[in-house]
Design brief:
Length: 327
C-alpha cells in the first residue's frame, strides 16, 4: 500500500469531528485554527472580545466576551468537544496573562468534558536546547517567557493526571498569517531593497507555516480518542538556514536585495525603555542556537504531517503581506 501524500489522512481512517470552541479566535493562530476546523466540517465557535468580532472567520458562531470573565467562558464552552487555547497578549503582560488564561481554559475544558488543545512556542527549552528537539527533550528555560511556558506545561500535565485530556503542540516561529518575525523584521524594509535577518545566516531555525500548523491541530483533534491523556507533540514545519530563507525571498520578489544582520545591540540599548525590545532580547538565543523539531511522534499519530513545500509556503506568505504580486 502506498503512503498517503503530505497532509492526507492514513487510508481507512475515520475522522471524528464535533464542536470546537476557539479561545482567541481573532488572533493569528486562533483565526487560522478556526478556519481549518471549519473547512474540516466542524461546528466552530469563535470566542473573542466584542470589539474583534469583525475579525472572526465568516460563518463561525461568534461569542463576544472578555476571556478574563472566567465564568462566562465556562458557560460558552458548554457542549464543546474540543477547546483550543489560542488566547495571547503582548509579551510584557505574560507574567499574569499566561497563568490566568491557562486556568480559564482548563476550567472551561473540565466543565465541558472537552479535550484542551494548546499550541506552544519553543521558549521552554532554553538556550541549551539541542539541535534536534523532540517530545523527550527536557524543559530547561533560560528566559522569563520560557519559565512561564514550562510552568504551563507542568500545569497541563498535572491536570491530565487528574483526568483532563490535553494536547500540547510545540512549533517554531509562525509565519503565513498575522504578526511575526517574517513581516516585522525580515521583510520589514523590503520596499527599500533590504532584508534583515536576526541571526547567523548559516544556522538552522525552526519555522511553522500557519495553515499547516492549524490543519495539524484539526488532525489531532480528530484522533483525540486515540491519544494519551497528556499528549505533547512537536510540529516539524520548515527548518531552514537564514541563507535559504533570504535566498528564497530574493527569488520570490524577483530582484536583488541587500541582506543585513539585525542589530541586537541597538535593541538591548533601549530595552529598559521599550518593553517589546526587552522581551525580544529575552529570547534572542533562538537565533544563535541551531534547532529543528523532530516530527516522528506526530506522524505516528496523524499519518503524513500537513506540509506545504517551503518555497510555496513562503511565496503565499509574501503575497499575503503584499510583498509580491503573485502567490
Amino acid at each position: 500500500m502506498s503512503e498517503p501524500a503530505a497532509g492526507e489522512r492514513p487510508p481507512g481512517e475515520q475522522p471524528t469531528s464535533g464542536r470546537v470552541l476557539v479561545l482567541g479566535a481573532a488572533g493569528r493562530i486562533g483565526y487560522a485554527t478556526a478556519a481549518a476546523f471549519q473547512a474540516a466540517g466542524w461546528q466552530v465557535a469563535s470566542l473573542v472580545r466584542g470589539s474583534a468580532a469583525h475579525r472572526c472567520v465568516p460563518g463561525t458562531t461568534v461569542i463576544g466576551l472578555d476571556a478574563r470573565d472566567r465564568a462566562s467562558v465556562i458557560e460558552a464552552a458548554s457542549g464543546a468537544d474540543v477547546i483550543v487555547h489560542a488566547l495571547n497578549t503582548p509579551y510584557a503582560e505574560w507574567p499574569t496573562s499566561v497563568p490566568d488564561f491557562a486556568e480559564t481554559a482548563i476550567a472551561a475544558a473540565r466543565a465541558a468534558g472537552a479535550t484542551l488543545m494548546v499550541p506552544d512556542p519553543l521558549f521552554a527549552y532554553g538556550a541549551g536546547m539541542p539541535s534536534v528537539i523532540d517530545e523527550e527533550t527536557p524543559l530547561r528555560p533560560t528566559a522569563r517567557k520560557g519559565v512561564l511556558r514550562a510552568a504551563l506545561a507542568e500545569r497541563l500535565r498535572a491536570e491530565a493526571e487528574d483526568g483532563l485530556r490535553v494536547v500540547l503542540v510545540r512549533a517554531g516561529d509562525v509565519y503565513g498569517g498575522g504578526i511575526g518575525w517574517l513581516d516585522r523584521v525580515v521583510v520589514n524594509h523590503l520596499p527599500h531593497g533590504r532584508l534583515a535577518y536576526p541571526g547567523p545566516l548559516d544556522l538552522v531555525h525552526a519555522w511553522a507555516y500557519l495553515p499547516d500548523l492549524a490543519t495539524t491541530l484539526v488532525r489531532l483533534a480528530e484522533r483525540r480518542a486515540t491519544l494519551p491523556a497528556f499528549a505533547p507533540f512537536g510540529f516539524p514545519g520548515h527548518a531552514v538556514t537564514g541563507r535559504v530563507l533570504t535566498t528564497a525571498i530574493v527569488e520570490a520578489v524577483g530582484r536583488p536585495l541587500k541582506i543585513d544582520r539585525m542589530q541586537w545591540w541597538m535593541l538591548r540599548a533601549v530595552a529598559p525603555l521599550v518593553p517589546i525590545f526587552r522581551e525580544l532580547c529575552d529570547v534572542a538565543y533562538l537565533w544563535s542556537v541551531p534547532h529543528r523539531i523532530d516530527g516522528t511522534r506526530l506522524a505516528a499519530a496523524v499519518g503524513a504531517v500537513p506540509h506545504t513545500p517551503f518555497e510555496a509556503a513562503l511565496a503565499d506568505a509574501l503575497y499575503a503581506l503584499g510583498a509580491t504580486r503573485r502567490a
